[in-house]
Amino acid sequence: MELNVAFSCPCGAFVDQNLHVDADESLGDTEEFYASVQCDGCGKDFEAKIRRKFGETSVAIAGAVSLTFDVLAEDADDELRWVIQSSEQLDTYRDVVRDAYRLLRAPVADDLKVSLCNMIYAQVVTAVEAYLSGTFIRTVVNSNALIRRLVMTDPALANRPLVLKDIFSQHEGLQLTVAKYLHDLIFHELKKVKPMYASVLDIDFGDIGWLFRAVLIRHDCVHRNGVSKEGVPTGVDEAAVVELIKNCSSLVASIDEQVQFSVQEAG
């Protein structure tokens, strides 16, 4: 993780430095790191204490005056750690839906309405994809029984080579290994998400042809402002957005209820 810290030293000099800290492989609630910062004015060494909890970063430097900091770059695994630890997937989806309705009710010039609907439509599709991916990853990797079921039903994961001397280190990082595999495999891939929910969590989505079509429409909304590659408008308007939200919310509610049952059944 790359950080920029800036503060005033008691000597009067201003300190502005970039720091790099290596993330711990631990998946605990809280991670702490330490780095050294030196004042160019008086040569004093300061110890920076960097603390992360559920993806939120804080920095403390004893003796620093008016300390500010910016996270310049997160570690590649930070997002997955958040997915594994967080239970906010449903709340995040609901926040997107709430904002979508607010935007639809906002006063907008007629010539901007189509562009607004295209953006909202794309955001809702992305939100439901993120919910499906994040919920599956969090549910599976936090259950040894479900990880085992995943391995037993996924040939690509089951047949991964394992060197005997690496057994212990890979076991310790098993959650992150499985989360990486799932994230790379299923995010934005509904055709893979549906059978994996069925085989591992015993959850049937039913007919989601409407969602597959919405994904294709989302592509046109994002890349051609609601026009297909043949030049035909996709017809995304306020009514289409509202219908999409209703269908997505019904699917999410059903899945969230079934996920709780699947976890209890898996033990």
Characterization of the model:
The protein is an alpha+beta fold and 267 residues long. It folds into two domains: 2-75, no CATH class; 79-266, no CATH class. The chain is 55% helix and 18% strand. It has helices at 78-85, 89-105, 110-141, 144-153, 155-158, 167-172, 174-186, 190-201, 209-224, 238-266, and strands at residues 2-8, 14-20, 30-38, 45-53, 56-61, 65-73. A hairpin with a 2-residue loop joins β4 (45-53) and β5 (56-61). α2 (89-105) runs antiparallel to α3, α2 packs antiparallel against α10 and α3 packs antiparallel against α7 (174-186). The two termini are 36 Å apart. 25% of the residues are buried.
Element layout with pairings:
Blueprint: E1 2-8, E2 14-20, E3 30-38, E4 45-53, E5 56-61, E6 65-73, H1 78-85, H2 89-105, H3 110-141, H4 144-153, H5 155-158, H6 167-172, H7 174-186, H8 190-201, H9 209-224, H10 238-266
Antiparallel strand pairs: 1-2, 1-6, 3-4, 4-5
Can you give keywords for this protein?
267 residues, alpha+beta, three-stranded antiparallel beta sheet, 6 strands, 55% helix, globular
Question: Average pLDDT value?
Answer: 83
Uncertain runs: 24-29
Strand content: 15-25%
**Helices and strands: which structural class?**
alpha+beta
Overall number of domains:
2
Anisotropy-based shape: globular
Helix-strand pattern: EEEEEEHHHHHHHHHH
